[in-house]
Amino acid sequence: MATTADIKNGLCIKFNDKLCQVIEFQHVKPGKGPAFVRTKLRVIETGKVIDNTFSSGHKIEPVRIENREYQYLYQEGQDYIFMNNENFEQVPIPAKMIEKPEFLIEGMTCNILFHAEEEMPLVIELPLYVISEVTYTEPGIKGDTATNTMKPATLACGAEVRVPLFIDNGEVIKVDTRTGMYVERVKN
Length: 188
Known about the structure:
mainly beta; CATH 2.40.50.140; 16 strands; about 0% helix
């Protein structure tokens, strides 16, 4: 068992029978009364962020997690199949565990957080950026580049994003996987 003195950013703990990760914490020692630790916790299963205040010296139950690199192989029904790059073991991950599965490209390397004792996958982290070809978008009007107007485009990976008017079919672009926003055009 650990105490509130062991709390740090990124620590995973069991809180109210749920796995939570500490996003932010602040140790407060008021002039009057006992010290306490104010925290922001992300519930791993749902992604919801909750605030909680622990009294100083409160016992917490840390959970050991491991970050492992896996390669995305293919989709099978509602599951996405990932392969461990070291021992080639394949793991099926349900679609609900992946925040933006439309950005998955075969062969892409992703980080998967595992509960170390139970060997259970918790969170799948996609790379920050994905590079994909635009398979379909409406043609832009020549000379209409003065405004910051965006148009819908479909990528080879299946995602739909908004791109500037000068992007055409067949061009390769870089997209932020966290927001789904166009970043830049990639030169061949």
